[in-house]
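Need tokens for this chain, all 209 residues.
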Amino acid sequence: MLGPSPLWLVLDLLGTFAFALNGALTAVRAERLDIFGVIALGMFTGLGGGTIRDVLIDSLPPATFVDWRYLAVAASGGLIAFILTRRLDRIAAAITILDAVGLSVFAVLGAYKALDLGFGIVQAVIVGTITGVGGGTIRDVLIGRIPTVLRSELYAIPALIGATCVGVGDAFGYHGTLGAVVGALVCLTIRLVGVRFDLHAPRVPDGPD
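Here are the structure tokens for all 209 residues:
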């Protein structure tokens, strides 16, 4: 079992903060929202995936409502995005990297939590992927646009592959920090390569006019 080590807790909170910050920034750029709207969307982005995961695996109440640190970190990310929107644009690359780290950590930890409860590999991969992309999907739905994971960027695919690495590693007896690190690094690498080279999943070709 992958224990709740201080390192993974820090990474989990860092991922929550990065998701909340990036989600709030996306909301600010897309819509004219007040401070409540920006913070709320940041919190939905930061906490949504983990909450969906805990509901799916029947781990209730969700961890985000048991540990106040998750709520505080997510709210802080949204507030910072509201106050420092223009300044944060200057470090967009760093925020993208943090977001990729959050995606990787959430996908891996989501898959491991499912495996620890006896889920099969396929089910664990699904839970891990949903954990990684769930918050951003909720955000996009709330601001009235097609979720990013369905229309552009390599986002869901890295999470899916990272979670799959965890499931396959578990099947071969690598259920611990080593498997988690490998899965997270694979997810992180694919995501950052996709951002760097503007890669997208295959799309339906445009039809004739």
